[in-house]
Amino acid sequence: MKRWILFVxxxxxxVITGLFAYAxxxxxxxxxxxxxxxxxxxxxxxxxxxxxxxxxxxxxxxLGEPYIINFWATWCPSCRWEHPYLNSLANDEGxxxxxxxxxxxRDLAITWLQxxxxxxxxxxxxxxxxxxxxxxxxxAPETFFVDSKGVIQHRFQGPIDAALWNNRLKAVYDAxx
Amino acid sequence: xxxxxxxxxLVLMVAGSLVWAGQEARYFDNEQLRDRYNKLIWQxxxxxCENQAxxxxxAPISGDMRDRxxxxxxxxxxxxxxxxxxVDRYSEFVLYNPRLTFGTLWLWLAPALALVLGxxxxxxxxxxxxxxxxxxxxxxxxxQRLESLLGKDS
Lengths: 177, 154
Description:
The complex is a heterodimer of chains A (177) and B (154).
Chain A: H1 8-25, E1 46-48, E2 56-58, E3 67-72, H2 77-92, E4 97-102, H3 106-116, E5 122-126, H4 130-134, E6 142-146, E7 152-157, H5 162-175
Chain B: H1 2-18, H2 31-43, H3 60-74, H4 79-90, H5 105-131, H6 140-153
Helix pairs in contact in B: 2-3
């Protein structure tokens, strides 16, 4: 008598329930997709500075110390929401933030940075989203954590706030070398 | 009034067939390129959406990926190279037809394994039934009892 066969369906259901419970309790978000860029060096680029169309910036200009690189745009409401916190990160915590103005207009970007203050150590102007495409950016805001050698260690999609920074991202930033 | 309803339905049907989500008017050097383009944009998945091909999505990133696909086709890249280029930036997530790796091997193996397992279980159950004593076989006492019971009832 192979009585245990009767319990197979129950065990299958238990395993599936376990998987669902795991996803629920760990807040697995199906919209989060893996980044192909983590562990790779910053792609090469040559783009102008937001405030000066004569000045070219490349990936070489970013090397030296760890930084976070933040893709933003004036058409992006969550960027507006995130902006004050980026200001306080730059001013109070001394985080080096590189800004990439993504698929936007230069004039609008300049006005924005005047109106809402500029947390960015460097402002890169990427009107066609070329650098964004190279880095697998799917929308704004999106933030990458890069070490001093230019290796991308982490990618974060969505706006950053104090809770997120303190609970998760600060550790990532502090671990950069 | 009926004809108005019919007319509206007709209009909606025609309009529905004209909707081609987020599709730009494209000019191709030849029909082959057009076919390859149309195939590629249905093979690549929008990384911003949960389940849409870039050919089916209005997300800005899908538009960018269509543009890039179109440009690369005209620069002479092969389908394989275009797909590799996208995967290189947007990860394996953008493939509707996943590649065969150790991680994805199970997508093909699991159904086959389930089929084999099901067959084994079915055979085991069938054999067990054959081996177990037939329920039709009664002892003499049981037969007598059964007959008396049946006789009483009728």
